[in-house]
Structure formats: structure tokens, C-alpha cells
Write a structure and sequence with these properties.
It comes from Larkinella knui. The protein has about 450 residues and is an alpha/beta fold. The protein folds into three domains: about 20-125, Alpha-helical ferredoxin (Fumarate Reductase Iron-sulfur Protein, Chain B, domain 2); about 140-230 and about 385-450, FAD/NAD(P)-binding domain (3-Layer(bba) Sandwich), CATH 3.50.50; about 235-380, 3-Layer(bba) Sandwich (FAD/NAD(P)-binding domain), CATH 3.50.50. It has helices at about 10-15, 25-35, 45, 55-65, 65-75, 80-85, 95, 110-125, 145-155, 175, 185-195, 215-220, 250-260, 280-290, 310-320, 385-390, 420, 425-450, and strands spanning about 140, 160-165, 200-205, 225-230, 235, 250, 270-275, 295-300, 325, 330-335, 340-355, 360-370, 375, 380, 395, 400, 415.
Amino acid sequence: MAIVNNRLTAEQYEQNFSDIHPPFESREAALIEANRCLFCYDAPCMKSCPTSIDVPKFIRQITTDNPKGSAHTILSANILGGGCSKVCPVEKLCEGSCVYNLMNEPPISIAKLQRFSTEKAITEKWPLFRRKPSKNKKVAVVGAGPAGLSCAHALSREGVEVTIYEKESKGGGLMTYGIAAYKVTPQFCEEEVDFITSLGGITIKYHQELGKTVSLADLQHQYDAVYLGIGVGLARQLDIPGETLHGVEDAIRFIYNIRTNGYPATPVGDKVAVIGLGMTAIDAATQAKRLGAREVTIVYRRTQAEIPCTEAELAIAKLDGCRLLWLAAPQEIRGENGHVTQLVCRQMQLGEADASGRRIPVETGETFVLEVDMVIKAAGQMPFEGLISGNQLENRYGKITIDATGSTNLRGVFAGGDCVNGGKEVVDAVQAGKDGAKAILEFLKYFSGFGLHG
């Protein structure tokens, strides 16, 4: 057993990481699906979308051959509507709320239709939006992820000059660096960022990290307001023996390396264990298998009834041949010559329910051993508590505290997205960015007296 890269041929990599949700093959196919829509009054699909995209309207615009109108309807509500059409867990959002589910019929393929409506608009940079005259106000946005980009675009449309400070070399945040490559390609992420900034009035400064190359105090001094969309990104540790052995990798770093270095350059083990069963764990497990791992075992301390990922995501892992071990928790990672060789697990059973309603796993006293050469930790992510506390931002266990308007305890500093909620969906971050922009516009209006909405 060994951890090596370049396990597969170029053709195998291309096949394994091809689009898992391919688009409609033709305009006619999209029209057939669009015409299934019942155009519900008070549509439940719209209500279940965190950004409140008018789903019946954009689908009707497809049926009436109005591609620009359809794209505008989507992107005016969710400027990352193209990316969200590829990565959103629609089975628990819009498509999960489709009335066809009540008729034992397949729901409308809303995500696929949304992709049909937005993809060309994004790649060709259709001028769907126009900026209002400059308000002579400047706002700094920290983080070019979904929350930051959404906030920046909403502000720029109102005539505010926005500068985004991004620690990586590319924008997109989680979309670019933290999601499985077969869901959304780096090329599309780059095109989506370019589309957003094509509006004008948005400058992105890369390799600028809060607390290192740029300080919050300086931003407060230089700008009229600051929006923090720094997300989360610290991997939660297992706190078990052997965690520092070669071959132990956190899922965030593993996925980041795939997205940054490419498939052939990313090493993977022969027998891989993935700890956890959230969306990140699924992405890590399936990609390990697609990189050429012979065996991938997902270790989860509860049962399928308590999984944090969706059933659709779990099905992907099963179809890829990942093995699932229920009621198992890591106890120790063993190795030889500094390299991982075994994962010792505790056998668990479910006890009483905790505050979230899920039953608590309890040790049975039994253990078992897995022969592995790589362990990927996907036990959750933690906020940047040191960075946040060091900037005198009120927080709760590292999650920034904001009031009803999105304002932090620091005057003129606003925040939203994963750094506030601890980690939700991309679409939730987009809405947080919209909410933050609205709050900032009101703040600037109140303190300057100019009419932002005139």
C-alpha cells in the first residue's frame, strides 16, 4: 500500500471527473422540461430557495424563448445562480418542494433549467445589469467567496465602489476551492467571477489575507464600510493518537489540492478511510475513489437516519463504490516508520437524543481495526476564532455575532455567510451577501444623507 499520484491515465481522469449533472442536450429538451411546469401560484419552490428566485417566472421565460429575461430573473435574485445550479442540494430545497412530489411524479428539473438559462449569459458576459451613477462611497469586502461576491455585486449596482480582498489567487471561495471538481469546474468558477466583476466598480486584490497582509483597522480607516465574508476553513481535529502520521490529511486540504494542483498531481492512498459523513466527507471520499484509490471506507459514528449529508450525495458515494461503516468512531491511527497503516475504531450504539434531536452515539466497549494507508479527516470545520477575537469582534465560539441588520459590534463593519452561521449552503451565503449589501446601503445613506435608491 502506498500514497502516490498519477494513478490513472488522462482519459480515466477526464471520465471520472466529468460533469456529474450534464446540461440539456438541446434547446428542445429544455423546452419539453420547462413546459411540464405548472407555474404554481405562491410557488413552494420559490419559497424554499434562500435567495427567493422566482422559479415559475424564469421557467415561463424559457418557454416563451426569452433567454435574457430568464437569466436576468435568476441572476437578479442570485448572482451566483449559475454555480448554484450545479452545487445546490436541490433535493431538499426547490426541487424537494415541487408539487409533483405530491403526485408521485418526478419534480421539475429546476437546477438543470437554471443552468440552461444562466450558462451562456455567464460565459458570454451578457450585460444584464447596469450600475447607477457613482455615490462616491467606498466599501471593502474581505473574501471573494459567495457571500463577498454577492455583497460586492449588489453594492456596485447601486453605484458604490467595491474593493475585495482575497487571500487566494482566484475568486470564488468554496466554489473554487472546496467543492468536488465533478460538480463545478475551476474554469466555470473563473468565468462566474469574471461575469460578476464585468459589471464594473469591483476590484479584486488577490493574495491579501486579513490579519497578515491587511488589517481590519486599516480597512476601517480607508473605507466607508467593511463587509467580512471570510467563511470557515479550519479543519476540526480528531484529537486521537497518530493524527500527525504521514498519510493523515484533512478533507479541506485534500479537496483544495485537487482543485489547485489538478488530478494527476494529487496523491491518494490505495486503502483510504474518510472520517465523517457531511457534504465535505462525501466530496473527499468520492474524489479519492475517482483518483484511483482501490478501497474507500467512510466511517460514521451514527446511522443512516442521522446523516448530515443528503441522500442524493450518499447515493453518489455508494455508486462510486465507497464502503460505509455505521456506528464507528476513530480511536487511534497506527503507523510504521511514520506512515499510516491502521485505523482503530470504537464500535458505537445510539443513546438518547441530543439538543439537535439526533441520538447520541455511545461506546459499546468493542473495537475493530481497518488496514489503511490514508486517513482523511472530515469531522467538520471551525471558524477562525483567533482572527475574529483578535480584531475585537464579538463572537460566539468563533462565529461572528451580528444584529438584525447584519452589523457587528464595530461601527461600519458588517459580516455574513459561513463566518456568521458556521457553515451552510452556497445559496445561503449568497443571500447573506445580499442582506449585508442592503444593510451597508442603509448605513451609508444614514450617515451621509445621499439618496441611494433614487
